Amino acid sequence: MRPFTRIRTDLESTPEREPLLRHPKLATFTCRSTTKTPGGAQADATEDQLVDVHITPLPRRQLVVLCLMRCTEPISQGLIQPFINRMLEDLKVTPERTKIGLYAGCITSLFAFCQLCTTFWWGRLSDHIGRKPILLSGLTGLSISIISFGLQTSFVGLVIARCLAGVMNGNVAVVKSVLAELTDDTNKARAFALLPMSGALGTIIGPMIGGYLAQPAEQYPELFGNIVFLKAYPYFLPCFIAGLTNLLAVLLGFFYLEETLESKANKKNKQRQINSDETHGGDSSSSSTDHQSDDQPVDGPPSLRALFTPTVITVLVSFLFLSIQNSSWATLIPLFSYTRVEDGGLGLTMTQIGTALSANGFVAVLVQMVIFPMLQQKFGTLRLFRGVLLFVPLSFAFLPLLRYLTLRETNSHGPSQGSKVALYGLMFILAIKSLTGMGMVCMSLLLNAAAPSKSSFGALNGLGQSCSALARTFGPASAGALFALSINQHHLGGNLIWVVAVIVCLCTCVTSWLIRVESSPIKRK
């Protein structure tokens, strides 16, 4: 009997430097085979085999639509970051400026809690009724919620608007499922790198919209100073623009996005072929032959118990810790930047915060388009994931150092010079942190590699996003509360929040070493 042979692909070939949407090409991979004998002994073959593999071209039109859908969420999320603290001040939710962060964290956490309650079920539902209906309904709900957010005049109204966004927003998991179904082992890494790149574009556009269009009657009195509506609702304009981007994604998705769920796609293709046969008068024998592939049974979604394999559990635990540190970072950066220098922050304005976050988005795009494909090809997904995590505690540790330099420069040369140090220093730290965005791409690849079957992509990515939502439920509120506690009580000189953040990041690094996922072998040509 022929022994069982497992082929492990070592992605150590020539680094991939071509654009992500390049035409298909032939690539050479080094494959090492491991042979298991009938007696159970394992022998490693020392031979390396060079295999020519045809790289499948990426479906460009589908990717453009998916990238736009992925881009709209960070636009809707990021646009509130520059002005949320000022908005809460205007609503007079608390008389103490140092407690604004607690309320801002609560708004973020409520959004994530609602997303936690629904994301898995959106993904699970997409495994049954298809990906496209879920994506379109989610984008529509997100559009309604962000527009209504700009019309609120009370804290309760803000909470309701964000909860609606959380309930309707399960799209990230479904987009990842669609991408996994559109790609194979030869182009999956390049395709998944486009998602965080699209998210990075959203982080550029969102803060710019929020920072430059909030309070337009005050910022641009010559243009909007006489518009009473914008004076009454100073944060409506950026929210309305974000809502339009979601509606644009809905329209493009409706007309151009194809269904990828295998059972639904086969049924649709079969009906198209039948209609074509009827139109061209095809006979039954040829029709039977043409439909043979479509008539093959498609496995249904696995049970919930079947999803929780040991490999899936370890990946999800790492995903949870990764999301905790990322959500805490996303909350702390605007809060830390907005807080006055004498209170423990950087004292930046809304426009400066928006500029820094947007500039970081350009760096993130460069990382995803150029650096990630090259490093993933050279080191492999898991090794790269473990490596980039080391930059996160470093980024957190730099923040109190920047505040010290800003305070010293402010006392020595005045607030103007201190503000410059704070702004450029923040941009530098954000650039370092943007390198860790590769970790989210690696996590997506690892999660899909751990899937029991293709029919479980929706549920499994839903579980991953549920872990992310769980982290964003407690992470931002905890980070905001701990930041307020640190600067009010001056624990560890006001640096308690940064010490805790570094510890959490180190825990994330530890969890990455528990993962044991091998990339699927690249089939020989």
UniProtKB/TrEMBL annotation:
Organism of derivation: Cronartium quercuum f. sp. fusiforme G11
Key word Repeat present: no
Residues annotated as transmembrane: 100-122, 134-153, 191-215, 235-257, 306-324, 344-372, 384-402, 422-448, 469-490, 496-515
Region (Disordered): 267-300
Keywords: Membrane, Transmembrane, Transmembrane helix, Transport
GO molecular function annotations of the record: transmembrane transporter activity
Taxonomy, superkingdom: Eukaryota
Membrane topology term: Multi-pass membrane protein
Protein name per its UniProtKB record: Major facilitator superfamily (MFS) profile domain-containing protein
Domain Major facilitator superfamily (MFS) profile, chain residue ranges per copy: 62-520
A matching Pfam family: MFS_1
UniProt cross-references to InterPro entries, sorted A to Z: MFS, MFS_dom, MFS_trans_sf, Tet-R_TetA/multi-R_MdtG-like
Chief location: membrane
Gene Ontology cellular component terms for the protein in this record: membrane
Subcellular compartments: Membrane
